[in-house]
Amino acid sequence: MLVIGLALGACAGGDGGDDNTVAMQSGQRFEPETLTVSAGTTVTFVNDSDEGHTVTAYEEELPEGAPYFSSGGFESEDAARDDVAGGLLSTGEEFEVTFDQPGTYGYVCIPHEGSNMTGSVVVEE
């Protein structure tokens, strides 16, 4: 099961310092770029920059049978790419995903894909 949520984090300290937090930072990068967690962990993505970002799973980089995830609640990568604005997280906004299935989950910020704003979550049993 994959649980997804979106919240406003006016006071969120998403500097990547929390073990289960990935910050979207100025310089168009995810910090940390790769996060390793145990199955069942909820990861919080926090936009700490002054520009909008997305968290969009690469469908081809999901473990077999794992559900798709993206900010904006899209059901596929194509749908997320067709409506980038619908998945943008503003400054201070958070997006949560609970990863239950072991494997590696690759994701991207669509508007900054050309700047290589990509990351991955490695889920261990």
- The count of DSSP E runs of length 2 or more, i.e. the number of strands, is 9
- Assigned CATH class: Mainly Beta
CATH topology: Immunoglobulin-like
Based on the structure given, which CATH architecture is correct? Answer: Sandwich
- Identify the strand order in the major beta sheet: 1-7-5-2-3
Overall pLDDT: 90
What is Rg? 13 Å
Shape: globular
Count of individual domains? 1
Topology pattern, helix = H, strand = E: EEEEEEHHEEE
CATH homologous group name: Cupredoxins -  blue copper proteins
What percent strand? Answer: 35-45%
Can you offer a commentary on this structure?
- The chain has about 120 residues and is mainly beta.
- It contains two helices and nine strands, in the order ββββββααβββ.
- The chain has one domain (about 1-125): Sandwich (Immunoglobulin-like), CATH 2.60.40.
- The chain has helices at about 75-80, 85, and strands at about 1-10, 20-25, 30, 35-40, 40-45, 55, 95-100, 105-110, 120-125.
- Strands 1-7-5-2-3 form a five-stranded mixed beta sheet, with no helix packed on it.
- Mean pLDDT is about 90; it is low at about 5-15.
Report a brief summary of the structure.
By secondary structure, the chain is mainly beta. 8% of the residues lie in helices and 39% in strands. The chain has a single domain, classed as Cupredoxins -  blue copper proteins (Immunoglobulin-like, Sandwich), CATH 2.60.40.420.
